[in-house]
Amino acid sequence: MTHKNVELRIRQFQTAGDAQRSLEVARRIVEGKIRNCRTLLRRNHAGDPITALDEMARLAKLSSGVSEVSSLLGIEGAAANVYFSHFAGMLKCLDETHAPEFIFSTRNRRPPTDPVNSLLSFLYALLVKDVTVTLLSVGFDPYFGFYHKPKYGRPALALDLMEEFRPLVADSTVISLINNREISPKDFIRRGPAVALTPDGRKKVLQAYERRMDALVTHPVFGYSISYRRILEVQIRLLARHISGEIPVYEPFCTR
Fold first, then answer.
1. C-alpha–C-alpha distance, residues 132 and 143, integer Å
2. Nearest alpha-carbon partner for 134 in 126, 142, 122, 143
3. Residues in contact with 221: Cβ distance below 8 Å, sequence separation at least 6, in sequence order
4. What does the DSSP 8-state code read for residue 166?
5. Which H or E element spans position 125?
6. Parent domain of 177
7. Distance between CA atoms of 192 and 34, rounded to whole angstroms?
8. CA Rg, the chain, in Å?
9. Is residue 82 part of a domain?
10. Which helix H or strand E contains 32, and what residues bound it?
11. Angle of helix 115-138 relative to helix 228-243, nearest 10 degrees?
12. Does residue 12 form part of some domain?
């Protein structure tokens, strides 16, 4: 059933059709994602990746001032390269129990070719589903975005809004699953070049994801503790207020 908030969708389509206004939202989304990736790296890396942290801080700042979407895409890609080149440093898998199955070298997908990438892809799919449902509940059209381009069957706005939550929800869940030994190599199956979760493996990941979504965190703007699931809705409502002209900018959710 279509949500009754027709006015919001009109504002959404108007904003999406305005290159400058769309870019303003996209810049904030990408900046938030990079900042959150940097925070996760700073908190969890076993070493002291000062160079990577400095570079990600530079890229986050640079993203806030670009004048073209193509430049923003380049910055996001550069930040992702830095982040995933240091992702293995957040995984405690170099022992006889976990090695070599959970050793991570690079991000790959379609299909994921190792257990860590299989976990990342599965959790990103769960996250985009939850963002899509929340967008619909607020009144947005999840298929019409400001940063990701519309494409048949592609929930572009959901992909936009999930960016700042990728590291905080999905990547964090991967790290917890591996480092706490909640998941093991027997929870994966290889089919040709692809690695997928077994039914038991999916169940474990779903349980860990739900725990993460229910975890309480203090919202940096409002100062009260709420779950990540609730924060999804708060951020989406903040975006609605921004494109409706009630607040001047969209503030992404970022932790310290």
1. 9
2. 142
3. 238, 251
4. I
5. helix 115-138
6. 6-243
7. 34
8. 18
9. yes
10. helix 19-44
11. 50
12. yes
Query: Count of domains in the chain?
Result: 1
Query: What local confidence, expressed as pLDDT, does residue 47 receive?
Result: 83
CATH number at residue 178: 1.20.120.920
Tokens of 11: 């504002």
Q: What is the pLDDT of residue 214?
A: 95
CB distance 173 to 123 below 8 Å? yes
Q: Is residue 16 helix, strand or coil?
A: helix
- 126's CB contacts (< 8 A; 6+ apart) are 170, 206, 209
Is the separation of the CB atoms in 28 and 156 below 8 Å?
no
pLDDT in tens, the chain (256 residues): 566 789 999 999 999 999 999 999 999 999 999 999 999 999 999 888 889 999 999 999 999 889 999 999 999 999 999 999 999 999 986 554 545 678 888 898 889 999 999 999 999 999 999 999 999 999 999 999 999 988 888 999 999 999 999 999 999 999 999 999 899 889 999 888 899 999 999 999 999 999 999 999 888 777 789 999 999 999 999 999 999 999 999 999 998 7
**pLDDT confidence of residue 100:** 65
Predicted TM-score (pTM) of the model is 0.92
Answer whether residue 256 is part of any domain.
Answer: no
Residues 164, 40: Cα–Cα separation, whole Å: 12
Tell me if 219 is assigned to some domain. Answer: yes
> Which helix or strand (DSSP H or E) is residue 37 part of?
helix 19-44
In the prediction, which pLDDT does 152 show? 86
What are the counts of helices (DSSP H) followed by strands (DSSP E) for the chain?
9, 4
The amino acid at 249: V
DSSP strand pairing (216-218 vs 188-191): unpaired
| CA pair distance 102, 176, nearest whole angstrom | 13
207 contacts 224 by C-beta, under 8 angstroms: no
